[in-house]
Design goal:
Blueprint: E1 2-6, E2 11-15, H1 29-39, E3 50-52, H2 54-60, E4 64-69, H3 80-96, H4 105-108, H5 111-117, E5 121-125, H6 129-141, E6 144-149, H7 155-162, E7 167-170, H8 175-189, E8 192-193, H9 204-212, H10 214-223, E9 230-234, H11 237-248, H12 253-258, E10 266-271, H13 278-285
């Protein structure tokens, strides 16, 4: 492990995983194929498009640049449903005492399964996309969802989650405290927390959620079949912004070299943010609205 400074930028980066190291079994290509096999059973599934950014390729001097556009994913405008649906399915199979690989999705949504496990309530804290994914999954399984949202949540996102039959409460809390509220309500009422945040003693479900996102990677491998070197980044605009710095800013030359980026590199970004309110996003990210840490 090595930590390096980026000059003049007041930031550092960590080099930890040697190139060529085996994947963890929990995030291996074999696991990705199993996750995708589950998602392929969901009505409306189809791979999201891979878009080539031809002008940036010419401007920045890389071999190719692609964006994995998650907006069409199940009509929900975000990738988060991949994690939510997979985690909820794993949770139901855990209650059934059977591995997900042995339970067809058509059986998961059947009356037989609902009668066997009874009525359950899923809960999560969210600022939008994750909570909608959980609500969407619960709706298809005939189960209940209660979703808590932090103060300042956009009304369109609240309405989108409610459209799947979920109960939604917009709190007067910041995001971290909203997560704590969801957990306390789950403990009080016997609900199941499906949260995309891990903490001590709570890591199984977040791992399932992260594994659910592997479907994006599996699809991309198929879509780029035959291309050699690929460097991936998450979250659309953030990834593209970093690519711009690596391509054009001398302060980031060492990082570019450590990533082995050059004219032969193919770069990939996942456009994951869904339908974001640009004004509210700017107020939160740029101006510190609704801070998680009190000054």
């Amino acid at each position: 492990m090595q930590i390096k400074e980026i000059p003049n930028q007041n930031c550092r980066y960590l080099i930890q995983t040697p190139r060529g190291r085996d994947f963890s079994a929990t995030l291996s290509p074999a696991t990705a194929l199993g996750v995708r096999a589950f998602h392929r059973q969901l009505p409306g599934y189809k791979p999201t498009p891979l878009v080539r950014l031809e002008r940036l390729v010419r401007a920045w001097g890389f071999n190719d640049i692609f964006v994995k556009d998650e907006a069409p994913r199940f009509g929900l405008k975000a990738f988060k449903v991949l994690g939510g649906s997979y985690a909820v399915a794993r949770l139901v199979c855990q209650k059934l005492g059977r591995p997900l690989s042995k339970v067809p999705y058509a059986h998961l949504v059947s009356d037989e399964v609902r009668e066997r496990i009874g009525q359950i309530t899923l809960t999560a804290a969210t600022d939008g996309n994750h909570g909608r994914g959980v609500a969407w999954a619960a709706e298809r399984l005939g189960q209940k969802a209660v979703v808590y949202m932090p103060k300042g949540s956009v009304s369109s996102r609240v309405a989108a989650i409610r459209s799947h039959g979920a109960t939604v409460e917009v709190t007067d809390l910041n995001y971290d405290d909203t997560v704590r509220l969801a957990c306390s309500m789950a403990e009080k009422n016997g609900w199941y927390v499906v949260q995309d945040t891990a903490w001590e003693g709570y890591s199984e479900v977040p791992l399932w959620i992260m594994q659910g996102y592997l479907t994006m990677c599996s699809e991309t491998v198929d879509q780029l079949r035959g291309d050699a070197s690929l460097e991936a980044g998450e979250s659309g605009a953030v990834g593209i912004g970093l690519m711009d710095l690596l391509a054009n800013h001398s302060d980031f030359a060492a990082l570019k070299d450590d990533l082995e980026l050059g004219p032969d590199s193919t770069l990939l970004c996942f456009n994951t943010e869904g339908a974001t309110d640009p004004v509210n996003y700017q107020e939160i990210i740029w101006h510190g609205k609704y801070p998680s840490i009190d000054e």
